[in-house]
Each structure stands twice: as C-alpha cells, then as structure tokens.
C-alpha cells in the first residue's frame, strides 16, 4: 500500500509538473506573438516615426492620420517648404507593394501614384501613371507628380514598410488613392509591371484639418460620417436649429397658452440633449494642427454652461404673482438670446475650422437667414399690435 501510494503521488506530481511546463510554454508563445504583433504596428500616438534617421528629409512635427484603417495604413505629411510637401506612408510589410495615388476627382484611372516595396532588404520606390485598370495600363516611371530628386526612399523595419517622398507642388490634389498588392507578389525587376492590387480605397482628403471621407465606389472601411462630421451635425441641430426654433415658439406664440410652454420646453430639452451629444463627440476628435480649435472649444463650453443655467433656471422659476418674476424673465430671456447667438457664431467657426463642404455651410446659412427674417417679421407684428 505504501509503495502504491508513493507511486500514485509521484504520478500526480509528474502530471502537475508537465501541466506547469505546458502552461509556461503557452505563456511564452503568447508573449512572443504579442511582442511580434506589437512590433509590426505604427500609430499616430508615436511622436517620432520609427525610421526617422533613414528618411532623407526632416520628419519632425508631421501631421498624422490613420489613412486606411482596414489595411493599417498610417500617413504622415507636412508642407515643408514653398511648393514642397513631404509624405511618409507606413503599412504592414507582407511582401507586397503599397501605393498612394493623387487624383483630382477620386478616380484611380487617370491618377498618378507613388508605389514602394522592399525585396531582399532593398527598397524600391517608383512613380506610376494609372492609365487603366489592368497591369498593362499602369506605366512605370511616368506620371504627373513632380517628385523631388533624391528625396524618396522605402524602408522595411519591424514588419512595416515606410514609403517616404517629397512632391514639388503648391497644394496636393484633394483625393488620395490607397492600394496594396497581393501578398508575396512584387513587381518584376525587368518590367516593373504592377500585379493587380488586392484591395484599394479612395479618400477625399483635407490637408488642413487632416479629415478624410470615403468616396463612392471605394472599398475602405471609413464611414461617410466620421466623428468630426457627426460632432458638427449634432451641434448644429441641437444648439443652432432646435434652440432658435424653441425661442420663436416661446416669444411669439404665447396666445396659444399653455401649448406654447410645453412645446417650448420639449424643443429646448431635445436641443439641449442633442447638443450635449455633439460636445461629447467633440472631445474625441484629434485636434492636432487645427487652427482656432481652442477658441471653438471655449465657445462650445460657454454655450453649454449658459444653456445649463437656462435649464436650471426652470427649477427656480417663480410664480407669476411674485415680485421677482420680472427679474427672472429678464435673465431667462437675455441669457437665452445670448446663448443662441453665441452658438450660431461657434457653428460657423467650426465649419470654417473643418473646411466643410460648401453644401453644409450654405444650408445652415440659409436656415439662419430665414430665422432672422422670421424673427424680424414677428417683432414688427408685435410692434404694430402694441400700437393698436
């Protein structure tokens, strides 16, 4: 019995040791995989590009954007001199080429692209003119881009490919075409013909704000309404549309008592809630390099504070027979008007900062104009009614 017990105990210990060793081995493998994965990533949170010492130009203080999240493309860029723009495109190195094209209309055909790849530790960068959709139509060493001589390089480092180049132009074209070639299939050294890309995306790109939007027909993952545009639309609807309408309801429709009061309350509460949602999204926006964004943020906080005081004032609303009611009315009316005017000004400032498309600016401008005309007409009507 003693020997059997000892044998059983020994077997249990052996199994425990094996289990422990297997666990340690699995942990090491997982840790190694995590480290290898992390080493092949790049993000805009990194202040300095990993291959800065190998780039043939100063790469400090570049703007950075996640250009194509689906393929982990990171684009850094800067206006580095008169008629000179510098770019560094970073992407996973899968034994394929990566490309960024510049287009005036967002179409791949007719654009010119900078294409880079690495083979046997040697990087190659070429310009291609994309004359069609087949490899035969993509001519190497041709294109409309004016590449600065001796300022282009491709570096493979830690599982990523870095394509750096400079363009001689006053302002790059407004659409970027990103493409990635098939894994393990590089252009042939003799013909330099590009294999058909496995994926591509077209972006409308704003070089001032760093915002980009999907264009029709592209296969990327970026939504047509990114956080920046959602922030703007929510703020515009809440602070700039609903609250001005709510003000008109309270001032010019008091004859419809008590409907005017409940309508006014419902509109203002909805506007307040939507406006807060817009502010929350605003704090999630990457504001690096945006001009006047601090002013826009300060005005937004001021609008929120004043609107919150308006909401709290309802809780302290005195009875109509109270002697302080007229002071409360003065406060409520004038703070409300100031909030609306400040919000309208800040919305136009935000549209200017984002350099939003003219359709949004014109649409909101038309609303404000109609609102001003309506207020003027109602005020004239009130004046004539008082004279009578």
Automatic annotation (TrEMBL):
Keywords from the UniProt entry: Electron transport, Membrane, Signal, Transmembrane, Transmembrane helix, Transport
Signal peptide stretch: 1-30
Spans through the membrane: 232-253, 265-285, 297-315, 335-354, 360-378
Pfam families, per database record: Cytochrom_B561, DOMON
Domain DOMON: 71-181
Subcellular location: Membrane
Gene Ontology CC terms, in alphabetical order: membrane
Gene3D superfamilies per record: 1.20.120.1770
Domain Cytochrome b561, chain residue ranges per copy: 188-387
Designated name of the protein: Cytochrome b561 and DOMON domain-containing protein
Native organism: Sorghum bicolor
Lineage of origin: Eukaryota, Viridiplantae, Streptophyta, Embryophyta, Tracheophyta
